[in-house]
From TrEMBL:
One of its GO terms (molecular function) is DNA binding. It comes from Citrus sinensis. Transmembrane segments: none annotated. Pfam families: NAM. One of its GO terms (biological process) is regulation of DNA-templated transcription. Residues 1-100 form the NAC domain. This is NAC domain-containing protein. PANTHER family: NAC DOMAIN-CONTAINING PROTEIN 14-LIKE ISOFORM X4, PROTEIN CUP-SHAPED COTYLEDON 2-RELATED.
Amino acid sequence: QAATPDDEEWYFFSELQKKYANSDRVDRTTKVGSWKVTGGDRQIWDNCGKEVIGVKKNLVFHKGHGSKAKKTSWVIHEYHSSKASIHQAISSVLYNLFFFI
């Protein structure tokens, strides 16, 4: 999240919400519109350039719903880590080792 309200870059972290219970589609709708993916996914590489560690998606906000939705100038970048579960597991083990032993 932004440090001050006038910052031009803000960061938000949240879990993905599925559009349907048995689907991989992500629900990005709000009461006043929705975020739509533009362009293709871009791979994020580690510092050595040897391994893909995630994906970046660009999204644009469309005000309204359905065919009457109007594209706005609001852009958001969505990042997905392909390594998050591994790092979360390691962090959990290390946390337990240091604080509960």
